[in-house]
User: Fold these one by one.
Assistant:
Number 1:
Amino acid sequence: MWPRPTRGSRRRKKIMRKAIGIVVTLALIPILNSCRATGSRTVVVYVSEDQVFSEPILKDFERETAITVKSVFDTEESKSTGVMNRLIAEKDNPQADVYWANEPARADALKQRGVSTPYVSPSAEGISDQFKDPDHYWTGFSARARLLLVNAKSTIKPASVMAYTDPSAKGRAAIANPLFGTTTDYVAALFTMWGDERAGTFMNDMKKNGVKVTTSNGESADFVATGQVDFSLVDSDDAVNRKKQGKPVEIVYPDQDPNGLGVLILPNAVALIKGSPHAENGKQLIDYLLSKSTERKLAFADCAQIPLHSGVETPPEVRRIEDIKPMRVGYADLARKMDEIQPFLKEWAGQ
Amino acid sequence: MGRPVRAETIVLGLCVALVAIAGLAPIAVMGFESVWHDGHFSLDHYRELISSARFWPLFGNSIQLALATTTVCGLIGVPAGILFAKSDLSLRSGFMWLLTVPLVLPPYFVALGWARVVARIGTIASDWLFGFGGCVLVLSSVFLPITMLLTFASILNVDRRLEEAARLVSGWPGVLRRVTLPLSAPGIVFSLVLVFLLAMGELSVPSFLRYPTLPVLSFTQFAASYNFGAATAAAVPLAAIAFVGVLVESAFLRDRDYTFRSTGQTLFISLRHWKSPLAALMAALCFALVILPLSALFADAFSPAAMHEAMQRAGASVVRSVMYSAVAATILMALGFLLGHFMRGGRQRVLSAFTLALFAIPGTVLSIGLVRLWNTPGTWFIYATPALLILGYTAQYCAVTTRLSLAGLMLIPTSLDEAGRLGGAMWARRLFRISIPLSTRTLVCSWLAAYILCLRDVPIALMTAPPGGDPLPARILTLMANGAPPMIASLCLIMAIASLIPLVILARVIPSRGITA
């Protein structure tokens, strides 16, 4: 016979019942939470732009439209291509409505793979066609530029990227690993503008001249700021940041003479995802991102991005787009060239 | 008529099914993907990996890092564990819990703290930190508590009667060398194997300190190119080493049940004139490994503006982190307890080895498999929700709760269960009336350990969180790119508080004798 329950065992039983109740409730939370947000007031955005800069914009959108934004951000380790590749992997089962790329090549890669769909945003009016996909699969806004950051105490005063091959700069210049990030874009732009032979020779000459290869543009900028090298090609946000921090650096917009190559402009790009669950909200978000007010906010933020609408107010350290000679390169060509030169870059970088 | 299926068998089947769905299925899918290319069997990913110039140096780096970390943890953690368990060292309890702090925080916190320290020293220190030396320093600080705590627990298990007998013929050095340490060896070896495997699979620290290792390559293959086959191929050597580690552990613990059984009052070594120097040494160790990096990390965290921004940026992530970890810990506690119950008496050794292998497999590898398995239109309720994250936590950490539960259950005399059976009580009744009421502290410890592990996890959080549902460690990592240092410091402080609260509870639940009453 099983003994009759005592007062103590009744108490234990009561506690146990409560514990089971808590366990069941806790276990139910993810199940309840798993009811997918298919309501009309949600938009899912995958973001390659740094979270610290992009999130405030998305929060403003949420506040102004009452549409809930669910975001996935990239990490530094994935070199800003993680979410793009996640979108490609999810092509048959799209979870996202919008892709906010930190450069057009990524948005173009989605177009090539049939992941995005065309959308003509009314907010894109006023942005030069150079920064838009001709078939409207993506639209550029708020750009970074590839600039030369020069140590203020340096005797070398480069005005062109050709300074990398100048004997006076032997061992005194740095560049981020061209296998990753915006340096890949820049090298691909050189291959597109100059042709494979001239660009290949330039890269090899740069290597022979003892260029220091860093892991990121941020590290390159730090090397210049601390005087470990005299100059480096970096993104405009890295350059402006070091300047704002009071480091002894100067910013040079390279190749600005009339016959010069120009500055490579790398806009953010936004694309609508094909078969997305909340397409209308996605379009609303795209309109918001492409607006002049968003461009103004990104110009005044620490990322110091260059507005692509003319006439948008900028802080003193950010040049307006109308005052810059941009490199005349098609972003679709750039994306193709980036793929093509991968073997060359791997060999160049020793990987 | 066939034999009726017993409730015990059904529950065991369900537990095994959960472990298989959460852990075995994703690993199997990954293995298949890595050898199935364009509709046919192919070893191209492996050939490409092995022939690439990067593979062998990265493999070598991973092994070197794991070996160096294990050596440092062994050299410091084992003596520290002995001192805390067997000596009359002043403040030993305080030292022990202080040294445990880095283990309950995401590993990259210590790296971030050291980065702040060296930023004030200069370039030479910075060059040293961002490389092999820095990785060993950080990982040793993080994993030292594993060796220290397991040595501590193993030494407390040694029967004092054997030590007393040995003391009649030998001094303490001889007793330690010939009795205490050999009897504690399984626990110590287990801790070293664990440290080696965890250091091998660590992602966030080598990635932050720019030291190239195989987990970093595997993560990059996945995150930067979503190349499942290549990512799996890069992860296979790690999985193979994890498997070897499990074999080593199984060989050492064969026919030995690893418990935290108290054998009465421990014999203490009187340190006499060594008491003050050793206390000073421990204080220096605590300062160097814990206080210095963490105070540098949190130095900027207390400004109201930074705290306000941190809460604005990550308030929701804090709540999510706590909620996900609590749910996962609850599932893990229940699963671990049931699996431990079945494993009692040395049964289900294969299951035990399998759960340990899942613990040793890097979180990146497991996450890749989970994403690959559940990213289908029919399984959105897993893929697009926190369920995927919780499955990942369940697979990775069920070994911990299983082992803790097993250790606790071993202390309950089997005669109680047998008496219940003879009295006609069914299995479920015996479980709820005998095993669970007598295992309250085991269950609390198991829940807290699982909660801490889930809360500090980075790779699973980073790779399987749903859109808009990132937990705090993942959010801090993404905000670190260009985020203001004071805000990052405040976020780290919030995370540390969320992790330390359960550690304090744990410290009160386990006074000095182990996990059971």
Number 2:
Amino acid sequence: MATYDTSDIRKGLKFMMDGAPYTVVEFQFVKPGKGAAFTRTKMKNLLTGAVLERNFRSGEKLEEANVEIKTMQYLYKDADSCVFMDTTTYDQVSIPETTIGEAKDFMPENINVEVLFFENRAVGVTLPNFIEQKIVETEPGFKGDTSTNTTKPAKISTGATVQVPLFINAGDVVKIDTRTGDYLERVGRA
Amino acid sequence: MSVESDDRQRLIARRPALEARARVLSAVRRWFEGEGFLEVDTPARVRAPGQEVHLDALPSGDRWLITSPEYAMKRLCGAGYQKIVSIGKCWRADERGPHHEPEFTMLEWYRAHAPLETIAADCETLVRAAISAAGPAASPAFAGTATHPFTRTTVRDVIHRFAGIDVVGDESPETLATKVRAAGVDPGTARHWDDLFFQLWLDRVEPHLPTLGPVLIFDWPTPLGALARRHPTNPHVVERFELYAEGLELANAFGELTDPVEQRARFLSESATRRALNKPVYSLDEALLAALPTMPPTSGIALGFDRLLMLVLGLPQIRHTMAFASDEI
């Protein structure tokens, strides 16, 4: 494994710390007037998602993390797992639902996702930021009432329930932010 | 429709800050003049730049650009100049970030026969003069904190308060490392006293300093003595304070060391450390060492003028205080 210097720290750099892989979220040059230079680094644990901050002194070495991101297509659900196919090699892998977490509620079949591998084991799935999904179930809307912020629950084809405006009907296609689960806009009508 | 260049837009947008900068600079000059200071203009290019281990000078032909005007100013102190101030550019290699520019303006002044507390009082007066000169451009939040007398504390006290450990200043590096770990800080590969200290400082102390408002932190541990004299009653600390405001290190002040023997020993130790770290080794400033015996007891301070403007104007980055940052020219 390669090692990095603090001067290599950039957004997205992946490295090992305390046995876990991290990715750099933010970094800043800091230096006390009479002390060595440090890189204040905000980083995310790729396994737990926890974000923390550390000051790495100039001269400290960081160990490269054995992580790989592959674009994979979600094929189908199989018991407590989801099966994905590498879009380049057509290899299939099965990833437990618990590893995928909440993302699975916004993961329609055939969608391309990014799968993070750590030491050749799939450890996380990142969806595209936006998906467009059909509403399969919602109370009929009240025509004309678009002036307020009132929303109602609606079930989308992946199974998740999102809050949508009252004018949305079953069969409409809506755009959703997968990071927040927020409704963004209607892109197709029933 | 005309398309203006980004650079022109940036310069236009920076105008209010530049106008405030000129007003503050003018007010600072007036204040020093009123106090009876002589403004001196010392060379930017020198044979012997600052020896400090963690300050790297930029080469300029066969000389170096100053990292501070300290050595030249102390030679003036040794020749009987009792109150001198310098407002000028300094350069520090590889320092670039929201709070660092490799070229910046330093405000440095010395008072002979004055205790460090006089310099501390100067800081309070100057910061308020800068706020007043900035007028409507001044940050109300910062102005609010600066009207109160600045908090005065010690390094030992803030470490104890925020990191929960007692750092006396007489620890061996090994003992300090143990204490630092006890505070929950991972010192990594740090083995030197100052590296261990600053890992602790950055991780556990500095983030809390904004809660104190503008704060004068006195009594720095002897291993961080640099050019400060030993404290008259506590052998483990030196006469030094740092001014922090909103967590930003604004100024560093010394009760100046005037013992040429001890100063030479510290310079030699610093150049040995520089050599061990494969950094450029600078020649000793023999003229400075020769001036120390005739230098009266003196207190001196270096204050980052651009950072003062950041605070006074409420600007998040040092580059916002200048027309051209180093990557804009």
Number 3:
Amino acid sequence: MYLYDAIDKDILADRTQEFREQVARRLAGEITEDQFKPIRLMNGLYLQLHAYMLRVAIPYGSMDSRQLRMLAQIGRKYDKAYGHFTTRTNLQFHWISLKDTPDILADLASVDMHAIQTSGNCIRNVTADPYAGATAEEIDDPRVWSEAIRQWSSLHPEFSFLPRKFKIAITAAPKDRTAAKVHDIGLVVRRARDGTLGFEVMVGGGLGASPYIGQTIKEFLPASRLFSYLDAILRVYNRLGRRDNRTKARIKILVSSLGAEEFGRQVEAEWEQVGPAGDLPDTELARIRGAFAAHPFETLPTQSEAFERAKAADAAFARFARNNLKPHKKPGYTIVEISLKAIGETPGDMTSDQMDVVADLGARYGSDDIRATHEQNLVLPHVKLDDAHAVYQALAAAGLATPNINLISDIIACPGLDYCALANARAIPVAQDIARRFADQDRAELIGELKIKISGCINACGHHHVGHIGILGVDKKGEEFYQLTLGGSGAEDASVGKVLGPALSADRVAGAIDALVDVYLRERQGEERFLDTYRRTGVTPFKEAVYAEAH
Amino acid sequence: MKALTGNRLDDGEVVFWAAGGWVLQFQDAELFSDPDLAAAAEGEAKGQTKVVVDPYLIDLIESGEHWAPLSYRERLRALGPTNHLGHGKQVEGGAVLEAIAAASGAARSTGRVNLIKRK
């Protein structure tokens, strides 16, 4: 992975000291809350319902064991011995004191981490494929480009005060695990017939109150021209984005109002102005690429006898292997998905002790490489099949071996009204109810891939628009209600879900999900997923099942 | 009936107004039946900028023999998160916290409305 150099470390030290002085001035009353708020937000510090929340950046979801151990330690020392992984592959601490924050930032800086650009109208953390460097499907390692974008966008003077926040995703595999089509910019690595590396560039995707699927404005951008093109997109957005109206300030609204063709034309014109001077020198790209040099994998047989024996002897491990182990590009290796969705627990939450367990496993069995996914799980991308059972046993002992990746209980949920000052309704208890209802793993496997995503307000941090079943918490005269949407997808077949009908009270949601699943099991043909069946049958049978009693 | 609440500046803790200062538990909060006295307290609280962030008045309802915040959001602030019952003020237990947990009123929180207005 990329390691910070002396300049990076100096920047973090300076930034921490600057914030230490700003906090002292705020506590002394020398600056007002209105003056201080944008400063603390630029350092990832929000004031929520019960305490301050610190959002720590995990660049493109990639970290090593040293960094995960530090997150565990911060959780123990300054929070309640846990943290919450988000849909932006960041980690949030929900019980933070303002007065402790400079010390926390210093602790983070000691392991090359920070909370810069985890808030504010700037370019946020890049989302990349959590299987980067491990999947055989990828054309190039997206972390190389993610790291280059991280360096380009960090403290970028021209793009630090955009009309609104700005999110970029990069995937290099046909199977999109980044939700690229609902990012402000989605980059898909492509290779031309002559072997040239490049990107398909999509813009204007996004969720929130007005969801949009990103539109392609350039089918093939040579990789060497990426940064001048990003400059051009950001400049057009910076110039024309609706700063006068916060609800219309995201790039998706600009692209929608201009039309993708006209937006693309303006980007091309701006790109001409920027020219190749705006691109990353080959030497710099080579330096960054060197940090992600191919891992020294051992030459192993495709099949592991130890792995096969363990599966035959341990049915629970066999189930874990079916659901949580994914194919690796190298024979004898596997990708291990660690579910943070234990039945009845809070999606994305992880105790400090669990973080230490995964850090140890990553260091011992996983090439010291740990990833966070936008679906609020973790990944050990490089584990030998020979070691998979030992990893499983250690995970199981720590309550981390729930075999439900991509199944109905692998639910995304934002913190919702239990923590968030913006939320209208709780999201976590709804997820817990549904997971408990589908706790039977045999039934969950029978149902197969079904992505439920829950947001506690229209800001859509829980990505409800792109859930196969989406659940949005709404406030009806102060009471929690939940609006269901069906047919969304955040993957390569991206689509925005459609509202099923009137919102339901909290106690009816899990039952409604059960009814939807029953319709799917009744109607499905062959290997259809829930989403496929919905797309074939349309909404009618599902709607009838949920609202039958109202007729 | 109203109470006055905010978040403490140095640690973000939910606090309630009581006799010119701030207390941690709703059961110790000063309750206002006179809207003028409540508004005066809010004005005084807003001046304590080194102590508290964004103080605001909340409406209360009766819950059994006790008062409780009317809005669900404010009841969560007075109790703690429902997914971690070992976190937040609910850990302390007692009749007032139980009354808050059992309350069933519904209204938008003034704090939430202020937040939206500010944006």
